[in-house]
Amino acid sequence: MKVLMKGNEALGEAAIRAGCRHFFGYPITPQTELAAYMSKRMPKIGGTYLQAESEIAAVNMVLGASAAGVRAMTSSSSPGISLKSEGISYMAGSDLPALIINVQRGGPGLGGIQPSQADYWQATKATGHGDFQVLVFAPSTVQEMVDLVSGAFDAADRWRMPAMILADGMLGQMMEPVELPEEGGHTSIDKPWAASGHGGKREHNIINSLYLTPDKLEDLVVERYKRYEQVQAAEQRAEEYLCGDADVIIVAYGASSRVARSAVNKAREKGWKVGLLRPITLWPFPTDALKKAAGQAKAFLTVEMSMGQMVDDVKLAIDCRVPVHFFGRTGGMIPTPGEVLAEVEKLL
Amino acid sequence: MPVTVICGHYGCGKTNLALNLALEAAGVGPVTLVDLDIVNPYFRSSDYRALLKNKGVRLIAPVFAGTTLDTPTLPPEIQSIFAPEAGRVIIDSGGDDAGATALGGLSHGLNEAGYELIYVINRYRALSQSPQECAELLREIERAARLRATGIVNNSHLGVETELWHVLEALDFAKASAELTGLPLLYSTVPDFALDGTEPPKGFKAVGRLVKFAWE
Description:
The complex is a heterodimer of chains A (348) and B (216).
Chain A: E1 3-6, H1 7-17, E2 22-25, H2 32-41, E3 48-51, H3 55-67, E4 72-76, H4 78-93, E5 98-104, H5 120-125, E6 135-137, H6 142-159, E7 162-168, H7 169-173, E8 175-178, H8 214-235, E9 238-241, E10 248-251, H9 254-269, E11 274-279, E12 281-283, H10 287-293, E13 299-304, H11 311-317, E14 324-328, H12 337-347
Parallel strand pairs in A: 2-3, 2-4, 4-5, 5-7, 6-7, 10-11, 10-13, 13-14
Antiparallel strand pairs in A: 1-8, 6-12, 9-11
Helix pairs in contact in A: 1-2, 1-6, 3-4, 9-12, 10-11
Chain B: E1 3-8, H1 14-26, E2 31-36, H2 49-54, E3 57-60, E4 88-93, H3 96-104, H4 107-113, E5 115-121, H5 131-145, E6 151-154, H6 164-169, H7 171-181, E7 185-191, E8 204-207
Parallel strand pairs in B: 1-4, 1-5, 2-3, 2-4, 5-6, 6-7, 7-8
Helix pairs in contact in B: 3-5, 5-7
């Protein structure tokens, strides 16, 4: 049976159903319901909910739990994710899987508490210091929040790297009907690398991100980048909506893709050939889908709740074969379908 | 006229009900709608300031509502709800016991003036889907609000996916919740779009879907 859930709660329940029993967090608007939900649910199922003394402590608890081989997660909103960046880098450098959820709000600084997508660069290019990437998933409905959480845990385990769900305040706060997966139906993989006790039967495992010998560190980073190439080939995901005959293709993810979809529907009513290409993974970026779409489109329009952080990725994906335009609002403002439609009209 | 207070689990549809009641009453006489949610900055009656003003409903909102100032405080004009010129007063409280805490500060005045406290329930809302969960949450809300609920409104729905059978099927849950809490079931709601132009069934009240998403 479908139930009505708030995005933040759905993320929490989906994580539990994906086998996560270790949540470490710290409250911040507009993500707090996720931590509150976990604080109610985890004790009932023998899991651990811990409100840490800070975001930094929470992410390092995730690092420790993940090193012991369990599915662990933390969640926050933009300023809190900046604090977690050190721990995320350490996890990447230790080849540890984990799930980090960012329910974005306006920035920079303390910014605001209304929805935003201005952490795109942070998520896809600079989640912390050093040469590394994290998997980034961008849900656009509460149901997709549920679906992507288990996929993100699986991918993180498979590739031994942190994964992030990049949501925003609107998705976190809105209520939608969802179908939850069966409990206990999640996949799990062996983690022979985990520091979970050797019982005197094997060499002990060491989880570490400190390598003082440069050639050894280079080897490790190069190996990681070979893995990233495989990730880019295997994990790209995007949804195409009415792109087949489209002259103008809107590229938008998350909450702004909901606005864009409304704009596309309105455009089609007017007989305008407009489509939507919605990246579901932001890293790896769905280059293949964009390349294909660039075959027939005359122009692209990226729509974001930021100053245009995804524009360059779209240009690179299509080798600048057609012009890429931008429309966005920022600071907690959400573009309206009417505003997007007006931008589309300029390109027809 | 007693003050109408609306409380319940967050996300059960309190604000949508409060807006419907306020707009309905606006046709009869002066109406004051109080947005008493000082917990959650999203999806609240203050977001509908323009609609309310347009229909002649006076809105009293926390000082921070609609701004990004993160210091939730109640405005001094909240005391004016007890003056006769306030007309019909509807208080849209925050969700759960945390949201109902702000009611506690008004409990003395409400007890003196007289109030009806509507407990809103929704069969499809996760974590308050059983009569037991509803009864437990009600106890927490009453403790925080320092007030007693006087009736239940069954607001069972599944957002935009609501169909008439969802609403009808939730009636047993609503009756069981009323029995368990010892409160009367005042009425059930049905979203007008689920009625397809037909009359609401007996005991049901048609409500408009006023709380919407930004892209609708």
